[in-house]
Amino acid sequence: MKITFSIEYHTHWGEELFLMLGNDRYSALKMYYTPGDIWTVTLDVSDETSQLRYRYMVKEGGEVTRVEQCSCHTLFLDAGIAHYRVEDSWDDIGDWDASDDFIARLMGESDGTETVHYQPASIVVEAMIPLHLQAMKPAIAGEAPALGAWNVRRSVAMQSCGDSLWRIDLNIPADQLPTQFKLIAVGKKDDVLWESGDNRWLRQSPHSNEVAMVRGLCFRYDGELKPMVATFVELETLRSDRDMGIGDLGDLKKVIQWVAATGQNAVVINSITDTAVVDGWMPVEVRKRVMANAINPAYISTEALGSFNDKRLLAKYQQIGMTLNRLDAAQLDEVRILKTDYAQAVFAEKGAAVTRSASYRKFVRENASWLHPYAAQSILQRLNDSRDCTSWGNYSRYAPEQIERFLKARHREATFVYFMQYQLRQQLLTMARYARGKKVSLLCDMTAPRHVKNIDPKEPWVNQRFIEQRLRDAGSLALIPLRDWLLIDGAFLPRVVKSPQRLAISLEELIAAHDFNNRVKSIMAPEKRTP
User: Could you give the 3-state DSSP secondary structure of residue 53?
Assistant: First the structure.
């Protein structure tokens, strides 16, 4: 199949645009200038290609001078279409709606099971809709009869395909093109928010074996939006009856339920990537990839992972987990060891079935650049009982070809590491999809603690005033730690103060605390967080 990319970009003398596939700057494709500041390039890809990840960059004098600041665009492809005509926009979005969110990046990657089917001769429009507006219904209204002839009641609703990305597949007769349109958001009482700025245009009229795509749009809004309200949680500090020492990915389900029930918009969790990466062994770029992708095994939900047949061993692990769960502080290292041992028992019985699946094989293949060095490091640390790479003998220096031979020789151990990372990602994606179904955004960012200011505990009513003031003063995002919400309740406050390192209140108690939850709802309701 063919894909023709075009993007409007004003360059200065000597500048050229390039299409970068994935993050490979060295093999980037040169684009060609056409009148109107439009740069274009066509490439052929295999009919078996299901998705293409790309970014744009600028070169001057052979040197890269600018690269899109977003994460890679992901273009999902349907083998039944012979030619895609992609009309794109430069993307430098850098807030929580974009590239710095770990979960949003994972949601933008196919898990091997996602497929798309486009109607031949259709026009696909994709747009980023701010999280604030997603309580309304994003849609397209335009002058063409197929777009409702500017009648809001006949506008065409868009469909969500990610936390902020919305898409619509349009069939517009050729005699109605070109045509003007705008993005709109329709409220529950048919109140309408029109995006600001000039009307947009749909100009391409695709042939019978083509799809025209308009990508990279962002809802333009000049007015004042009430902040999105998110509860911030440090995952390991959560406590539930089913935990094995710390809060885990499975606990997010109850947090999402609570956030949805109290009228909030999002859950933000701290970074859960694995920081136990050896300094000075991997090259800097490889180490960055590992630290940006590998999830700490301590956060895996053993409940979601499943059980195994050795009942005595199962009872032993559960007893250790219950003991750790009663402690006032999270013992992350001890929990990591316990859960790794538990997962080994599951892997011995169920690993073969998982590793045969198409989605697992695709995960391993597409993430080899960080998964292989991460697995090698994990195995070498265990074999040498040391994080000091100088004690690893022949492997004290990182050599890619040697590492690949090592992983083949240690195939079962390496496969277990891949299995764990696959399961962790699947659990996180399950929670993200559950949140989407609840109209809640699940976000994860290592920079989140910089935005969080904990309340210095005082009287409950004073703590409530602090939260109300924070909601009034927030910009686009009001980030309230779960701990601070609990401080507005007279019964919860002394227990929270007594246990500063881990929440003394279980998630089961939180869900059942009707008076407290009604108070949170009453704080949220008058503010009308979403339009």
Answer: strand
